[in-house]
Amino acid sequence: MMAVAMATLSLTTSAFVSVPAVVHAGGSSRCAPSCASARILPAAYTGLGAALLCKSVVVSSKWDASVLFASGSLSVLHFAVLDNRRFATAKRAVSLCQGRVSFANAKNEFATARALEQLANAKRWRLFVRVKVVGQVAGLAWMAGARSARGICGGAALLMATNVFLSAFGAYKVKHNEEGLPTPMSPLALRMILIIDTSVCGAALLGAVANAQSRYHAIGACLYSIGAIVGAWEGAPAFVSAVKNLAPVRKP
Hints:
- Keywords: Membrane, Signal, Transmembrane, Transmembrane helix.
- By secondary structure, the protein is mostly helical.
- It is built from seven helices and two strands, in the order αββαααααα.
- It has helices spanning about 1-10, 35-60, 60-105, 110-145, 150-170, 185-210, 215-245; strands at about 20-25, 30.
- Strands 1-2 form a two-stranded antiparallel ribbon.
- A hairpin with a 5-residue loop joins strand 1 and strand 2 (about 30).
- The chain is elongated.
- It starts with a helix and ends in an 8-residue tail after the last helix.
């Protein structure tokens, strides 16, 4: 298990990192996001995820093991790839919108006002993503350092609370893609995401407040683990694609 974890961690410095160049008005370009943050974030996700996977092997409770295994898999397969990509996209969107503001200043007030509005929304999206990243890392670290079953579920609740925060406070209404263009989610999709994330977060919270030996703790841990595994499964294709990028290309 430790060997697999270390091998997975080594992937973060290459396969999961994509640092596109942003060209601003006037022809200047820079690296966005910065190479440092683009490498640190997936390394943190994968390192913490590997720690949880290793911890799931040594804990005595099967419910604790399921929560740790599901959370570790979610961090490695989903967060390290997709959430790192979202973080990079949010930073790139702000840089592109800033360039459009500079370009619009040379045209007219209407174009400038529209560009400023897009920039404000892009910055809001970047802020939401940053809060999500901080909450996820804090939740994973909490679980890694927890010494009790309730502490493990408490970290899981914090981990999922970040998703609820984004859905409840309208983060996906100001979502931007890597081209710096707004891509808001539909109201139906937002409601579905909020319901699912709230349910999974509630299950983890139930496991955190209930007695570790009670059936309520087991139910909460089980339901949370199912939700986290589904999230890990959703990120698996992107993870596999990132790993395949490491394979050397054979020249004909």
